[in-house]
Amino acid sequence: MSVKKVLFDTDPGIDDAMALLFLARAPELELVGITTAMGNGTIEATTRNALYLRDRFGLNVPVARGAGKPLVGEASVPPTWVHGENALGDIEIPDVVDSTLHALPAHRFMIETIKQYPHQITVIAVARLTNLALALREAPEIAGLLKEVIIMGGAFGGHGHTGNVTPLAEANIIGDPLAADEVLSAAWPVVVVGLDVTQQTIMTTSYVQELAAHGGNIGEFIWDISRLYADFHQSVGMPDGFYVHDSSAVAYAIDPTLFSTTSGPVRVVTEGFAVGHTIQSKPGAWGDRPSHQVCSTVDSPRLLELYRSVIIAAGR
Fold first, then answer.
1. pLDDT tens for residues 48-65?
2. 70: helix, strand or coil
3. How would you classify residue 160: left for phi > 0, otherwise alpha for psi between -120 and 50, otherwise beta?
4. Average of pLDDT values for 182-198?
5. Separation CA 248–CA 277 (nearest Å)
6. This prediction's pTM
7. How confident is the model at residue 316 (pLDDT cuts 50, 70, 90)?
8. How many independent structural domains does the chain possess?
9. Domain range spanning residue 98?
10. Cα separation of 184 and 234, whole Å?
11. What 8-state DSSP symbol labels residue 182?
């Protein structure tokens, strides 16, 4: 079995934490580093959470602190009503984690790792794309050295799913739309896993209870952090459970056959009332802008079974 080396760019975040543990325990993937971004919490909070997760679950990889604000402007206010004041569902964790960060900032750690393993690194980016944009600006040659970029972000209107922050914009993209447009302009292989598919998959209460019962300390942790997340989803009208956002991007890395995709260049609106809107067109529609893959459908039962099997196997 060929194992993919993965850099995980993240803003933990409840669903980020769930995706990280899925990634770290999946035999098809090898986690080689974690880079942090602002988003679900401040950069201080998300970096603390990444260190906490690494140490608690023995992930034994470098953690590099990323950008604390977008390329232009200031960081948005963290969505504490979704992820909690500490961004991990307000479970009890230390205010400060006494653990060592990598010496390089996230974007330079990305550059170093991609050059160390040419054509081998898959970046799974489930946060604002600021770190990737900074890496590309500083070392544009990495576009030809990266195996793949898998982005959780955007919304293209499939199945009626558009934005979750505005009517047109998804959170990771609107958090730094200029960075997203720059990343999607580069000639590296990109797959976008947007709300079109992530909101097709739901983890119900009974599903997460099974993880807690049979998934060992990881399953119990997932139950604990996801209670506030589930409460938020119920407050906005979902009868039970919550959407599977970031773990869908990890699932793509493990088994792309779970998804169907459409090919074409992708643009991001960077200003105005539609800021953060992601648009895919036909190949050649925007000059020489490269085509990327956008996920359009997902086999949700198989995805949920994949997640369940990985977490329960880890709990044995």
1. 999 999 999 999 999 999
2. coil
3. left
4. 97
5. 20
6. 0.97
7. confident
8. 1
9. 4-315
10. 33
11. H
* Sole residue written with tokens 């600006």: 137
Alpha-carbon distances, residue 171 vs 112, 181, 259 (angstroms) = 28, 14, 22
Amino acid of residue 166: T
Question: 214: helix, coil or strand?
Answer: helix
What is the rounded CA–CA span in Å between residue 107 and residue 265? 24
Separation between Cα atoms, residue 10 and residue 246, nearest integer Å: 9
- Looking at residue 86, its amino acid is N
**Tokens representing 227?**
């209670």
pLDDT at res. 184 = 98
Catalytic amino acids? Answer: 245
* Confidence category of residue 1, pLDDT binned at 50, 70, 90: low
CA–CA dist 225, 218 (Å, integer): 11
Please count the residues of the chain.
316
Q: How far apart are CA 219 and CA 223, in angstroms?
A: 6
Q: CB–CB of 68/37 below 8 Å?
A: no
Tell me how far apart the alpha carbons of residues 181 and 188 are, in angstroms, rounded to a whole number.
13
Pairing mode of beta strands 266-268, 259-264: unpaired
| CA dist., res. 99 & res. 117, Å (int) | 26
On whether the CB atoms of residues 253 and 4 are closer than 8 A, the answer is: yes
Alpha-carbon span 280 to 262, nearest angstrom? 9
* Residue 111, domain CATH: 3.90.245.10
- Tokens 């990323």 sit at which residue? 66
C-alpha 311/C-alpha 141 separation (Å) is 37
Instruction: State the CB neighbour count (10 A cutoff) for residue 301.
Output: 10
Within the chain, strands assigned E span 4-10, 29-36, 63-64, 121-125, 148-152, 190-193, 202-203, 242-243, 259-264, 266-268, 278-280, 292-298
Half-sphere exposure of 121 (CA within 13 A, CB side): 25
- In the three-class reduction of DSSP (H, G, I as helix; E, B as strand; rest coil), residue 293 is classed as strand
In the structure, what pLDDT confidence band is assigned to residue 30 with cuts at 50, 70 and 90? very high
